[in-house]
Amino acid sequence: MSESDLLRFLDKVDQLQQLVRSLEAQPGRRESLAECSNHNQVVRLARSWGFEIGRRWGEPDRAGPRDGNVFEALRAEPGQETSLRLHGGSNWSLDLIRSNAYCTPEEDWFDQETHEWVMVLQGSATLEYQDSIEGVDLSVGDHLHLQPHRLHRVVRTDPDPGTLWLALHWLV
User: Parallel, antiparallel, or unpaired: how do β-strands 80-88 and 92-100 relate?
Assistant: First the structure.
């Protein structure tokens, strides 16, 4: 297996694992998945949730959203967040995230292995850190670097059409 095929395989496994975790976190997704009757329907549904699981060896990587416009690429249901992997490598990924009146449940905190740099492309949001009293308000053009294992959560994002984020994750 070539290195590029191995990386494509590992990326697909990662996407599938993320998809499975989303089924546990959002039970309605499990029902939607069960209604699919073929592989193409599953791939389309997973893509609508921000997961790219349909590529096979030898198929070209997509450079970005299917329609070529990041502002039209993703939709999220109210109270939800979806993401789309735009590009990535063995130790980094660039994701587009759409949040629609979304907030992290109060008892949950993001604890990431990776560095994350985020920028708001559309809308606004408020984040908070577990180790800080003050929230961080972000608007269009604002960006933020989140260190690995700095516990944080999303307090609020804009309602429909929501908040559009660009997120770069990397390991050092």
Answer: antiparallel
